[in-house]
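Exam review. A common question shows you a sequence with its structure tokens and asks you to describe the fold in words. Practice with the pair below. Do the first one on your own.
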Amino acid sequence: MGLEERIQQMRQLAETDPNDEMAHFSLGSALLDAGRPAEAGPSFQRVLAINSQNSKAYQLLGESQIGAGHRDLAIQTLTNGYRIAHRKGDLMPMKRMGELLEELDAPVPSVGMAKPDVGTLGPTVAGFSCRRCGGGGPKLKERPFKGPLGERILAEVCEGCWKEWVAMGTKVINELRLPMFDPVAQETYDKHMKEFLMLA
């Protein structure tokens, strides 16, 4: 499926259900990938209207606003997003938004170290740091599926974040109506999974 076809498919899903967070996020991402930041911005704004805690959407909205020449709006978006990402322990979007603020010669918010809540799943593991939350574990006991991506998840993602993805992955399949026997649908699913787990 080409990029333009993907844009049309996501646009149709977003128009069908204005409250479909995944469809709007996917549409914005596709438009940004296509070099159309001015069009991508409203999609990420819609994502944040549905879910104001989506730190990745703040990051991509900020990038869209920079691409469209809206520096002041981008600084406001990235500053808010940085604080939310810190509060949630979303370290990768937080780091990227900090870099973008520095590139814009804007102050990076002063916050304490993020302390992700790893819950009561089990003990932390020395030398291990989850790619998504920055916590020390517990690690997955075995790879979730075969192949290099399964190995990477085993090595870099904690048990808590993987459980969160399993719940979110079901939502992705249902909301985007992905027929998982289709290689294109599998590719879309994997893209969302890698973004959620900060492996992209």
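Now try the second one, then compare your answer with the model answer below.
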Amino acid sequence: MRYIYLGKRLKCSVFLPPLIFLFCVSAGLQRSFSAFAAVILHEAGHITAGLILKRKISYATLSALGADIEYTGAASYKADIITALCGPVFSLISGFLLCGVFYEFAVISVIYGLMNLIPVPCFDGGRALRGALYSSSDITVSERICDAVSVFCLIIMYLFSVFLLFYTSFNASLLFLCAYVFFDSYIKMK
């Protein structure tokens, strides 16, 4: 995958600018702003957890589904789990707290937080599952369990997206999201 380097510690997927443009055109500016604000708050949760746990960021990669934040040095599995889960927790809390004021933002934030709890490698749920299994069992067994859970979840997501494709009069957005998640998860599983 190719990246645009925006500095020593920040890089951006080349697919991100065209995807942002397409999203703004298809969803409108207000919904796009709500979605971007939800993603930024989610990533702020990860960064806040990293700062509290005294972890230093080596670099961040901006992609279509948010940011992939890499920290310097080794950390405990507990720190990895906390850092991974703080993003969805921030999303869920901000969504519930702002539900009465910014309803569209709240819905997007809650959905984004719940989606990130799915245990596939490119989501926070996958990182938390991996950390929990690594801390309690052999790495080889943990890898096999993580891969099996990820494949099972990806199959469920794919079947659900195909169902919604026909149920919503051929709205293929979830199918495209599942294809992206599958591709990104496949790369991270290798």
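Model answer, second protein: The chain has two domains: 1-117, 119-190. Residues 121 and 188 are 6 Å apart (CA to CA). Full marks require stating both points clearly.
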